[in-house]
Design goal:
Order of helices and strands: HHHHHHH
Shape: elongated
Strand content: under 5%
Number of strands: 0
Structural class: mainly alpha
Distance between the termini: 67 Å
Number of domains: 2
Helix content: 55-70%
Largest sheet: none
């Protein structure tokens, strides 16, 4: 018995989505991150977006592109339209920086965690339930902490290499 295919995004939506990405200066990797966050971890691929998800993402990116409509946002799916964080682009960049720093720290330790695990590490560091609830200040602190951990770990590995080469 065949199952009905999900109502995937249309070719017109795909063109508009990538046009908006180009206008915002987003590459494939950035779009994958955005799609992954937007679909709440379901997929990082734009080809797997449903019609409604793609419509909402196009709407979100359009508001980001247009400053006037951005200020008048009603409520984005990925974030509440909070007045205490009017600059969502800056907040999103901080979130991605924290994720990258945590992934790099695990990579230096020889581990390969999932995105959900990395977000849970950030949540524990900020004492928050949801990753998107972490404030800008907390994101900055967590980023600095994991950068410091990376430097410490690299220094320790360099010392170990130096000791091994002397023997």
């Amino acid at each position: 018995m065949k199952t009905a295919a999900p109502n995937l995004r249309t070719a017109d939506q795909n063109r508009k989505l990538w046009w908006l990405a180009g206008q915002l200066g987003l590459d494939k990797e950035a779009m994958s991150d955005i799609v992954y966050d937007f679909t709440e971890g379901r997929t990082p691929h734009t080809s797997e977006l449903t019609f409604l998800e793609c419509r909402d993402l196009i709407d979100y990116l359009s508001r980001t592109l247009s400053p006037k409509s951005y200020r008048e946002c009603s409520s984005a799916r990925t974030d509440k339209c909070a007045t205490d964080h009017p600059d969502r682009v800056k907040l999103d960049r901080k979130r991605k920086g924290v994720i990258k720093a945590i992934f790099r720290w695990f990579e230096l330790r020889g581990q390969h965690p999932t995105m959900e695990y990395v977000k849970s590490v950030a949540c524990r560091a900020a004492k928050k339930e949801r990753f998107n609830d972490i404030s800008l200040g907390e994101l900055t602190r967590i980023y600095a902490e994991f950068c410091r951990k990376q430097k410490s770990l690299s220094a320790m590995q360099n010392v170990e290499l130096g000791m091994a080469s002397q023997n």
